[in-house]
Amino acid sequence: xxxxxxxxxxxxxxxxxxxxxxxxxxxxxxxxxxxxxxxxxxxxxxxxxxxxxxxxxxxxxxxxxxxxxxxxxxxxxxxxxxxxxxxxxxxxxxxxxxxxxxxxxxxxxxxxxxxxxxxxxxxxxxxxxxxxxxxxxxxxxxxxxxxxxxxxxxxxxxxxxxxxxxxxxxxxxxxxxxxxxxxxxxxxxxxxxxxxxxxxxxxxxxxxxxxxxxxxxxxxxxxxxxxxxxxxxxxxxxxxxxxxxxxxxxxxxxxxxxxxxxxxxxxxxxxxxxxxxxxxxxxxxxxxxxxxxxxxxxxxxxxxxxxxxxxxxxxxxxxxxxxxxxxxxxxxxxxxxxxxxxxxxxxxxxxxxxxxxxxxxxxxxxxxxx
Length: 370
What we know:
- Converts 2,5-diamino-6-(ribosylamino)-4(3h)-pyrimidinone 5'-phosphate into 5-amino-6-(ribosylamino)-2,4(1h,3h)-pyrimidinedione 5'-phosphate.
- This protein is an alpha/beta fold.
- It has helices at residues 30-44, 80-88, 113-120, 138-144, 155-161, 163-171, 201-211, 221-227, 278-287, 299-307, 365-369; strands at 4-6, 17-18, 56-60, 66-71, 96-101, 124-129, 148-151, 175-183, 187-189, 216-220, 248-252, 270-273, 292-297, 313-319, 327-328, 343-351, 354-361.
- The longest helix is centred in the first third of the chain and has 15 residues, at 30-44.
């Protein structure tokens, strides 16, 4: 809904917007659309902000001149609008705020952005995504106060920006990414259980970039006992990031993990969950405020989540090698081709010598017949 005018309907549905120059006021100008792209780019540079969304804001003077670019850097820090307003100072009066997410109308660790925008004298707000969480209602509050609001500008791009954060608020559970590494014949471990390393160092560095997006890294007890993984985010020199930048390590299963295993060290926080039910696991993580789970090992745990329909994205790394025998990347209960679950490929890339495939799981043919 690029350049839509918002009439300020109440939540939880999106504000009603009309994509038309006749909607009662001007739709977003090219200058504002260009500013939205800069706001999106700014938000992408910050890295993980969970449990808060990544947000960017560009302040424009009445003549279209850029006054400031603000970003949100994580829980407890200034929201993007406030960051930009502080930079602009008195120049913000009469300005247009172009922000990737609907300004919040909620008091949490910080005050509502709607109040900050009104106090600064901002005359117009152009935003992308609508807020699905407790901060919703900002567009209506601004409209009621006499501010001109445009909603849904570059919304596909801004929705993608907050994809993982918004998913939990819409679906009531964390988003789950399953990552696996396998040979070309689909095996992730040799018959003796060894699996380090199937893919190249280049691929393993690539994995760290994806891990850094998440706020939880999950593995099963069997995988942890076999491989003694660190389950941490590390830099290019294989050094762990600081403790406060590490996702929660989650180990699922009933086997006891000895205290000397690396997953129980003090490099990152760890939670042990003794459960075989993927729904229960995600329920507990949802209660803990987790938005994005990186599911990494092993095939039994992945199979349980796959069978429950609780995997939202698949990232597979295929090494140019064959094992011939060993453990498959996924253990499940499929008995016929009617149980096959397709994956819509969204990205296919070479990462060093390996192939990286990213996709979204679909429904099994049998489910479509139900």
